[in-house]
Design a protein that fits this description.
The complex is a heterodimer of chains A (about 350) and B (about 270).
Chain A (H helix, E strand, L loop, with lengths): L1 H31 L8 H6 L1 E5 L7 H13 L4 E5 L3 H9 L5 E5 H9 L4 E6 L2 E2 L1 E6 L14 E4 L5 H13 L7 E4 L5 H6 L5 E5 L2 H7 L3 E6 H4 L6 E6 H6 L1 H20 L1 H16 L3 H9 L5 E2 L7 H13 L9 H4 L21
Parallel strand pairs in A: 1-2, 1-3, 7-8, 7-9
Antiparallel strand pairs in A: 3-11, 4-11, 5-12, 6-9, 6-10
Chain B lengths: L1 H4 L4 H36 L7 H14 L1 H33 L1 H14 L8 H8 L4 H24 L3 H9 L4 H30 L1 H4 L8 H10 L4 H23 L5 H8 L2
Helix pairs in contact in B: 3-12, 4-5, 4-7, 4-9, 4-11, 5-7, 6-7, 7-9, 9-12, 9-13, 11-12
């Protein structure tokens, strides 16, 4: 009898162990990472999901979310952090996110390719820099002749920015080597001089500067004032089905944009809570790019303006990423632009 | 080895003890040398970007203090468990079937051989389209990485069973279900265990790639998130080392399967 018991225990030990392991690891994962607690788990599931990347071009997304959750106790949407452009775009195309912060030329190109999306608002203005190595002899854009320049993506407005700057400096684009590189990798690539110049949204350019090996060649505010890198794009059916929600999102972004731009103190607060709760970056780095100088990146005039996009379209055609098939009226919906003076910055003070 | 120890002379026994001590000391010495070389490399190159071993140790302590290290390990092990588990559930029966029923193997072989060399990274867009931004997407990628090694070597194992086993079984009137459970499966087990070991290694290997999708936990996510965090290569290397250590533990555990009596039978009768 005992022998039989021992034999049975031995035979079943492995399957039992396997079962116990699967159950334990699944339950642990549920509680530790998926928020399987008595309350709060249903909050995220029913909300519209908005994709964003941890860059200052998307700052209004976490700021809107944070202020709303702090003041009203619940979110308007569920921000979903991605780590790179392709995954963010694919989740949006697959409708896993219904709205997303997206590169403006990429949104236009998707529309040209027949994807039913609309740009409903801007995410920011400026906030991009061109940075070269401290020891390099590059002093202006004509010095970039024969050099290697890193840009985030072929559909990034940063690439168009380089096209524009080189055109103005009289350097044919064929005389530089443009490479695509994820912005987080850019500072390290510049520090080891794998590339001669890097160009992306913040805070990665500020990082190269803070770490001591980067020198700003130009900030967008001086090269292309009012520069737009990223926009808020939504699927058309979200507009049809949940128009008030889209309006509320746009109003929320407009309001938090005004809040960020209201004072240096607000910028510091934003840097702190966004870095800690959303971006997982050093708050000092975010505070640096939001303050040195204060208009390095701005969030106040985010209405869609036809003229801004005309230049993007032109450069997009010049650089071969846009065909001109989609017009401003196709790829934008300006009806969400808040009326002048209708939006006020919220009274919000972040208590560290 | 242990049962033989009793009959050995005392002198030889001491020598064996010395050997055992040496066999633990050697890897420790190698690890220390590796650490010293690492530190020396950092100092010699004067880099400010790459972390020293000390900075990485500090980063691991920081992750423990924040309470995220345990969370991330659980998340990665969860995804690997399910990805690998599903690969086992699919790959093992499929491999047995293909090994036994050759026409099916001939038909499916090209498909398997075409799918097998595709890196899980290439599957990321499809994983997002099919499974969105949930845990199912990384689990799918881990499944893909481990299902082919299991299928292919199980099939080869069944195909390679010595004919004499089957004839002997036939002579004893063993057939049907009993033939599978008593002869074919045990005879294939050593090779299957080896393939499981390889497949588990691959499954754990792709955890970084799999967690590139918008998940917000896991050791792979830790590495990708640290890249977004500016100059935090201490966290990147900390994530790499944790993946390495846990990989070592997983491999040690799965190697214990080789000592099961059932597996030993198959090994002895090679």
């Amino acid at each position: 009898m005992t022998l039989l018991l021992v034999a049975m225990t031995k035979a079943f030990l492995l399957p039992v162990l396997v079962f116990v392991w699967i159950a334990t690891i699944s339950v642990l994962h549920g509680f530790m990472n998926l928020g399987w607690t008595a309350r709060g788990s249903s909050d995220g599931a029913s909300l519209v999901q908005i994709g964003f990347l941890p860059v200052t071009c998307h700052l209004t997304c976490p700021v809107t979310d944070f202020i709303r959750r702090e003041t009203r106790g619940s979110g308007l949407f569920q921000p979903i952090k991605f780590n790179s452009w392709p995954e963010l775009k694919e989740a949006f195309l697959a409708r896993k996110t219904q709205a997303t912060f997206l590169l403006a030329p990429m949104a236009i190109a998707l529309r040209e390719q027949g994807v039913p999306i609309k740009i409903v608002y801007l995410g920011h203005r400026d906030g991009t820099a061109v940075v070269v190595h401290r020891e390099s002899s590059i002093r202006n854009f004509s010095d970039l002749r024969g050099k290697t320049i890193a840009v985030p993506n072929r559909f990034s407005n940063q690439r168009l920015l380089i096209f524009r700057a080189l055109r103005d400096a009289g350097v044919p684009i064929s005389e530089v080597n443009l490479v695509e590189m994820p912005p987080p990798d850019m500072p390290a690539a510049l520090s080891v001089k794998a590339v001669d110049a890097i160009c992306s949204g913040e805070p990665f350019m500020g990082q190269a500067e803070l770490d001591g090996y980067g020198r700003v060649l130009a900030l967008t505010k001086d090269m292309w004032p009012g520069f737009i890198s990223c926009v808020l794009a939504v699927h058309e059916d979200l507009i049809q089905e949940q128009r008030p929600l889209v309006q509320e999102m746009v109003d929320g972004i407009a309001a938090s944009g005004l809040w960020i731009d209201k004072s240096a103190d607000n910028r510091e607060q934003a840097a702190d809570f966004v870095a800690k709760n959303y971006y997982h970056q050093n708050p000092r780095l975010l505070a640096y790019v939001l303050s040195k100088p204060a208009d390095r990146v701005t969030y106040s005039s985010l209405n869609l303006v036809r003229e801004n996009f005309r230049e993007i379209e032109e450069l997009g055609k010049l650089s071969g990423i846009l065909s001109g098939k989609a017009s401003f009226d196709d790829y934008t919906d300006t009806s969400f632009n808040p009326k002048p003076d209708s939006i006020k910055a919220p009274d919000f003070v972040y208590d560290k | 080895m242990t049962s033989d120890g009793a009959v050995l002379s005392p002198r030889l026994n001491t020598k064996l003890g010395g050997l055992r001590w040496a066999s633990t000391a050697r890897p420790v010495v190698a690890l220390i040398l590796f650490g010293v070389a690492w530190e020396a490399g950092i100092r010699w190159s004067g880099t400010t970007l790459l972390p020293s071993p000390y900075a990485v140790a500090a980063a691991i302590v920081e992750l423990i203090q924040q309470g995220v290290l345990a969370k991330y390990i659980v998340a990665s092990l969860f995804r690997t468990t399910w990805g690998f588990g599903l690969a086992l559930l699919v790959g093992l029966p499929l491999g047995l079937f293909l090994g036994w029923f050759r026409p099916a193997a001939e038909a499916l072989n090209p498909v398997i051989q075409i799918l097998r060399p595709i890196s899980p990274i290439a599957w990321i867009p499809l994983a997002i389209l099919w499974f969105g931004i949930t845990d199912a997407a990384p689990i799918f990628l881990i499944f893909l990485a481990s299902v082919f090694p299991i299928t292919v070597s199980t099939s080869a194992a069944v195909h390679g069973i010595p004919r004499i086993y089957l004839r002997a079984a036939q002579n004893f009137g063993v057939s049907g279900w009993r033939l599978w459970t008593r002869v074919i499966f045990p005879a294939c087990l050593p090779q299957i265990i080896t393939s499981l070991r390889i497949a588990l290694g691959v499954a754990w290997l792709v955890v970084v790639a799999a967690e590139m999708i918008a998940v917000n936990s896991g050791l792979g996510y830790l590495i990708i998130d640290a890249r977004n965090a500016g100059k935090r290569y201490d966290l990147v290397v900390a994530g790499m080392l944790m993946i390495g250590f846990i990989g070592l533990i997983l491999d040690t555990l799965i190697r214990r399967l080789e000592h099961l009596p059932m597996v030993q039978w198959g090994l002895q009768n090679r």
